[in-house]
TetR/AcrR family transcriptional regulator (Streptomyces pacificus), 408 residues
Amino acid sequence: MTHGAAPRRRGRPARTAAETGPAARERILQAARAEFAQRGYDKTSVRGIGKAAGVDAALVHHYFGTKEEVFAAAVEVSFEPALAVPDILGGGREGVGERLVRSFIGVWENPATRAPLLAILRSALTHEAAAKVLRGFLLRRMLERIVADLDVPDSKLRAELAASHMIGIAVLRYVIQVEPLATVEPEEIVAMVAPTLQRYLTEA
Amino acid sequence: MTHGAAPRRRGRPARTAAETGPAARERILQAARAEFAQRGYDKTSVRGIGKAAGVDAALVHHYFGTKEEVFAAAVEVSFEPALAVPDILGGGREGVGERLVRSFIGVWENPATRAPLLAILRSALTHEAAAKVLRGFLLRRMLERIVADLDVPDSKLRAELAASHMIGIAVLRYVIQVEPLATVEPEEIVAMVAPTLQRYLTEA
């Protein structure tokens, strides 16, 4: 994967301001996302991420810590577009189910955002360290933000049931590819699933 | 894994009637299920399955064919308890959603049936050959049998959406283990999810 503004360098680069600033951090994050997506959790190393980003592995450690923590950051940045939580919750309770499923499907329909999400899902299903990261992320970032605005009993469980449905759709549509689910128009899924999410998120 | 009635033999066993009859077939199937569950799709071999069942690899081929076909048979036998489709559909449309989710959760709650299902899910998410088997199985056995009794438009898509929700619940409850979904009582899940499946399966 190449990044227009970030040509790869060979060998150990000198640390200039540009290489240790926010641009380098962003480049490392993009490289991490690409490495985890291409190689999976097991075969990705902090050294490899550094190499792909054109920086020293020590700089990866400096910004993100352990491999697990780099993975956590990559998960976060991968889900960020799906979250856009202010947009989803800002519109109020009415239609929140529809906005949530449309946003989720939109991120999965885009191949650039689908690849890292697939990698995360596969890694979480096969490695406890990755499962732990996804668990922490789902709880801390995604569900708690959605739950905070819900005024229903068992709101956490409800948010998780909504999330489970969307994850299951991603599995059957994009990984297992069962027909017709794999090829129906996204809006058909939105129309069918929105009432389910709406019920989980808003009806007591 | 040992099976009470089937002590392991060393070396190439002589084929007696008992070793090539239905008992041997069943023993191979149980061994295949255990091998795929323990080792995953990649690391399981027809030879290893034969060894675990105490029969020659040729007998495994004789009964089931290729590794992919052995996997397909193992998938089928693993899902069989969840299907019990006559029970689920025999009761009529009313309560079909509740019976379906209760049956599904019941199979996952039982550690003996959970292990092979987890193995199948993991394999399908990481190997196209395994995904193909699950796709074929989901379509041919599970969904078509459920769909046959539904008299709603888009019944196949609806059955897949119901399946997607249950698979997503399995992923979040048993693999990622997000709280509270991972520890709530099964009946709480049944109560929340039944109306969703009922709507997908019966409401136009």
Notes: The radius of gyration of chain A is 19 Å. Chain A has two domains: 17-65, 71-202. The mean pLDDT of chain A is 81.
